[in-house]
């Protein structure tokens, strides 16, 4: 229990700012639905779907490699070598993006918007340079500064966005002469400029971690790191395909209305990604924790217990999203009621994201055993499933086709990773309890969904939602009464 308590403490330190940041980021996106019609929101979503793909290439697995090699290598030499590598490669990649902006915009069905690609390239350049300084803060256990800078990034992004989208139009009405530079129709462009300014501020706030970098490069160490990290590029790139291809596919599979459909799908996908707030918070603390724990004799037992607690919380978050769809609906329909057309995909996407979170927990086996290539194979197989099912299902079922593709892909990756993990690095996961908790959450949702289809009225519907959460919590407390009893006993002894 002591190790789990330690992870819980780290999750709070890294998790609370991450949760706050993700909530602010989430509501920033929801804010955009109040200023952008679905077509413009679709354009914005398309650009922001490209960024994660490029981030995988620009960072090429160096963050995870830093945590891995910091256990056995001189940290200063490792940090300098990886920072020099990333600076050189990022400069080269950014140059190619800038000179290829026009053809890239044409490829993305954004003709005449090479400027969007320019802004995107600079954003990725700045964000990539901050990757290793942030990893250094996490590895050294400095969560307060990490939290402050992450929060400032999201807050400044929100402030700059509100300035361009809300304040500038009001100023222009009263002062048309000196506000002649402002174009109210340039919405997506201003959102990218706001992001660029926030990324620049983040890099400035990380100046202390940047100043300690010396132009020192250990070629032998770099080659060793590359052998470990390059398969992670495939893992990351395949993961981005699995996560984002459904949204990108609308651009090519539904010509004519692709940006409207993509905008609606992306807005609802944002609702489903509320659960990612928890998963990301957990992952921030868990990744360095898992590496540090790997030398302990009871490491595998600890991983199993962590997985159980993780699934318990994921089930509750899933119900928090799925049982209160009508509340989330109000957030995205202030500008255009058509945003609610895809609301039924939210529970499917959310459960798929739960599977993704479980998969993230399971990946520790190949990171610890240096079997990253097998992890890459699993991710590539998931990417193939995503592409094939999107091509087959999206033209027939549109939003639902993309949603079920996401669920099937992540279920496949979760199960496959578990089976390989039990072969190469067996962990005694409580599979029966995990399936029971996921099944319980699903049954509660289906019962509530049936009630919702009967149109019982908002008051009764939300009361039933709260009752469903209560039932889930009561069952968990009963099933884990020994676990929670032990925890309470330990807490009393520490007072």
Outline of this structure?
The chain is mostly helical.
Topology readout:
Blueprint: H1 2-33, H2 38-59, H3 62-69, H4 75-99, H5 101-107, H6 114-129, H7 131-139, H8 143-174, H9 187-205, H10 207-211, H11 219-253, H12 258-272, H13 274-293, H14 299-322, H15 325-332, H16 346-362, H17 364-368, H18 372-397, H19 399-424, H20 431-453, H21 458-479, H22 481-494
Helix pairs in contact: 1-8, 1-13, 2-6, 2-11, 2-12, 3-7, 3-11, 4-6, 5-6, 6-9, 8-9, 11-12, 11-18, 11-19, 12-16, 13-14, 13-16, 14-16, 14-20, 14-21, 16-19, 18-19, 20-21
Features:
495 residues; mainly alpha; globular; Membrane protein involved in the export of O-antigen and teichoic acid; cell membrane; Poly_Biosynth_Transport; Polysacc_synth; membrane
Strand tally is 0
The structural domain count equals 1
Shape, please? globular
The secondary-structure class comes to mainly alpha
List unreliable stretches of 5+ residues: none
GO cellular component, one term: plasma membrane
Keywords: Cell membrane, Membrane, Transmembrane, Transmembrane helix
InterPro entries: Poly_Biosynth_Transport, Polysacc_synth
Subcellular location: Cell membrane
């Amino acid at each position: 229990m002591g190790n789990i308590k330690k992870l819980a403490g780290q999750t709070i330190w890294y998790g609370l700012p991450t949760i706050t940041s993700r909530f602010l980021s989430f509501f920033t996106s929801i804010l955009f639905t109040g200023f952008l019609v679905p077509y413009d929101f679709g354009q914005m979503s398309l650009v922001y779907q490209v960024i994660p793909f490029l981030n995988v290439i620009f960072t090429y697995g160096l963050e995870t490699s830093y945590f891995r090699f910091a256990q056995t290598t001189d940290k200063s030499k490792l940090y300098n070598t990886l920072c020099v590598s990333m600076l050189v490669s990022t400069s080269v990649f950014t140059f190619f993006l800038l000179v290829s902006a026009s053809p890239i915009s044409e490829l993305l069905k954004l003709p005449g918007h090479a400027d969007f690609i320019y802004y995107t390239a600079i954003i990725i350049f700045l964000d990539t340079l901050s990757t290793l300084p942030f990893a250094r803060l996490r590895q050294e256990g400095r969560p307060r500064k990490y939290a402050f800078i992450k929060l400032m990034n999201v807050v400044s992004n929100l402030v700059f966005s509100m300035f361009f989208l809300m304040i500038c139009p009001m100023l222009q009405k009263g002062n048309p002469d000196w506000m002649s530079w402002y174009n109210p129709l340039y919405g997506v462009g201003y959102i990218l400029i706001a992001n660029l300014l926030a990324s620049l501020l983040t890099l400035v706030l990380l100046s202390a971690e940047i100043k300690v970098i010396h132009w020192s490069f250990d070629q032998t160490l770099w080659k060793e790191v590359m052998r470990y990290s390059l398969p992670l590029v495939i893992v990351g790139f395949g993961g981005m395909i699995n996560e984002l291809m459904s949204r990108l596919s609308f651009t090519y599979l539904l010509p004519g209305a692709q940006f409207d459909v993509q905008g609606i799908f992306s807005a609802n996908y944002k609702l489903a990604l509320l659960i990612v707030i928890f998963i990301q918070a957990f992952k921030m603390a868990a990744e360095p924790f898992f590496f540090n724990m790997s030398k302990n004799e009871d490491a595998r037992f600890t991983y199993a217990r962590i997985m159980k607690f993780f699934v318990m919380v994921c089930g509750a978050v899933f119900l928090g999203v799925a049982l209160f769809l009508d509340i989330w609906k109000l957030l995205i329909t202030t500008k255009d009621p058509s945003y609610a057309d895809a609301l039924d995909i939210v529970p499917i996407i959310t459960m798929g994201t739960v599977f993704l979170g479980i998969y993230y927990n399971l990946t520790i086996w190949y990171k610890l055993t240096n079997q990253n290539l097998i992890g890459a194979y699993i991710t590539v197989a998931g990417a193939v499933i995503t592409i094939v099912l999107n091509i087959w299902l999206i033209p027939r079922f549109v939003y639902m086709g993309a949603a079920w593709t996401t669920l099937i892909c992540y279920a496949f990756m979760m199960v496959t990773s578990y089976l390989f993990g039990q072969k190469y690095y067996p962990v005694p996961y409580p599979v029966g309890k995990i399936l029971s908790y996921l099944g319980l959450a699903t049954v509660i949702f289906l019962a509530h969904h049936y009630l919702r289809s009967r149109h019982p009225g908002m008051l009764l519907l939300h009361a039933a939602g709260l009752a469903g959460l209560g039932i889930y919590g009561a069952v968990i407390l009963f099933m884990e009464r020994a676990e929670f009893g032990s925890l309470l006993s330990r807490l009393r002894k520490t007072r």
